[in-house]
Amino acid sequence: MAAERPCNGCAAVANAKSSRRSWLFKAGIALNAVAGALFAVPVLGFVLSGLFGKNPYRTWIGLGGVNDFPENNTRLATFRNPFVNAWDGATGDIPCWVRRLEGDKFQVFAINCTHLGCPVRWFQESHLFMCPCHGGVFYQDGTRASGPPPRGLFEYKYKVESGQLMINGGHLPNLSDPA
Amino acid sequence: MMSILRSIALWLEDRLQITKLYAATAGHHVPANTNSWFYVFGSGTLVCLVLQILTGICLAFVYVPAADHSWTTIQYLNNEQYLGSFLRALHYWASNFMVGIMTLHVIQVFLFGAYKYPRELTWISGCFLLFCTLGMAFTGQVLRFDQDAYWGLGIGASIMGRVPVMGGQLVRFMLAGPIIGGGTLTRFFSLHVFIIPGAILALVGLHLRLVLTKGINEYPKPGHPVVKATYDEEYEALIHKDGVPFAPNVIGKDLIFGASVILGILICALVLGPKGPTGPPDPTLIVTAPKPDYYFLPVFAGLARNSFTRCSAARGERLGAGPRCSEGQNRERICHAPIRRSGWASGRLLGQRRDV
After folding, report:
1. Which residues of chain A make contact with B309, given a CB cutoff of 8 A?
2. Is A44 on the interface with B (CB under 8 A)?
3. Least CB-CB distance to B282: which of A90, A145, A146?
4. Which of A50, A58, A164, B279 sees the fewest Cβ atoms within 10 Å?
């Protein structure tokens, strides 16, 4: 029978083939690991690009003439966020509460409740800001009155230039990154 | 004619080996006592998943995931696209049924002790499926991109903003930019249409594979706890002695339940219609009382309990219903439960919804 015939060197050839195959297998795994890592760099960089660095979205934004806001009054103002894309639609129009004390003294509050970001509303009769979501209440100067919010309203920095009220903003205020 | 069909069937069988596949899957043996109405909720959830995939693909034919157009395309679906409103209703009601039936499935599995050895991984993969399904529910209500969706995203961002150290970055990552906008919507669209469904299909594959490899748990008997050392042998003997093929012996109840689920979804969609959208996603329309879909209402309500809110003592007394403050262990002023009366009152005051 052919199978019983001695085969000089068969085992050596088989061993050589086996070691070559095992080398190819290991090299294949290693090469794929390198290729996979090189592929992952741009993909992860693309996905995680927003996760690093400081907030770059901050600039001075005009809210209108100072005289648009009567003294001792709190009014809703809106501005177009400067950091928008063409397809953002109305989501780029951001409201805020402007309280003019007297002259050039203002307080400009973000619309977002400091609890969970819902839109607070001003009630002239009670001189309170109230949140519809979980009942957060704030005094007219933005300090916290009651409810679950952990702090007073987010307040934008402001300046008055050539009769124009400007605020420093551009991002959604939150506890880590207030206005 | 019959002989031609038979030869075609044999030709296909020779190549695809359907009978072997059938015997290893639908025809696998299960304990006879699993032929119970308690065991139908898993397949009911699977029926909902299939409906969601089909109706979701239909809606994706029309829906535009752009912040300036998505609300308009939903109006188009509701009012102009032939059967668009009905397809939206089917997708919405199938999602409600899916969350509901899945919850029943989890409760049944828990009460029957089916999470125990050797089916721990079946339970764990099921838990991930539950999280994925809730993820689909949340991202789905974001795609409605109305006022509720807009402020719901605001709530999500605010929660992210509370994460220490990385909070600000996580908010920008979640929103794909500085504010809720077009980038946020496409991010959630990708999650809803590609990422989470992909995970769900992979997990369903794993879940069903485990059902086949580790079997379905027998109907539990009082006084017969699962003993790891002997369970496998006992189960093997039970299948050998009292096992029946899942199809056609046990599948009947699943089929009837599955059909009832489809009919229930059709009736709800027909009678109750689709949900929303509420007003357009315009943040300047502030007269709104954001509210999530029902499955997240308990979480939304629970978030009102923020009992360790810091406050200043002096401020606490200024309003009649101000927070009561006391010294905490770390000697900071700590508000105990926020005053419910004022919170409740303002919630009532603002809660009257005015959709624009």
Report:
1. 148-150
2. no
3. A90
4. A164
Choose the CATH number for A59-169 among 3.20.20.240, 2.102.10.10, 2.60.40.3930, 2.40.37.10. Answer: 2.102.10.10
B positions 42-71 inside 8 Å of A (CB): 66-69
Asked if B179 lies within 8 A of A143 by C-beta distance, the reply is no
Query: Which helix (H) or strand (E) segment is B184 a member of?
Result: helix B182-190
DSSP state of B116: S
- Kindly report, residue by residue over B37-87, the tens digit of the pLDDT: 999 999 999 999 999 999 999 999 999 999 999 999 999 999 999 999 999
Q: Which domains does chain B have, with CATH numbers?
A: 31-281 (1.20.810.10), 304-351 (no CATH)
| Span between the terminal Cα atoms of chain B, in Å | 65
Burial of B4 (0-12, 13-18, 19+ CB in 10 A): exposed
B284-306 pLDDT, tens per residue?
A: 999 999 988 888 999 899 888 76
Measured between CA atoms, how close is B332 to chain A, in angstroms? 14
Domain boundaries, chain A: 9-49, 59-169
- Chain A with chain B: Cβ pairs closer than 8 A: 214
Best probe of the A interface among B145, B148, B286, by most A CBs < 10 A, is: B286
Measure the CA–CA gap between B214 and B205, rounded to whole angstroms.
14
**Beta carbons within 10 angstroms of residue A143's beta carbon:** 14
**Chain B contact for A77 (CB, 8 A cutoff):** no
* Residues of chain A found within 8 Å of residue B180, distances taken between Cβ atoms: 91, 172
The values of phi and psi at residue A83, to 5°, are -100, 65
How far A122 CA sits from the closest chain B CA (Å)? 10
Q: How far apart are the first and last CA of chain A?
A: 89
Is there a contact between A131 and A145 (Cβ–Cβ < 8 Å)?
A: no
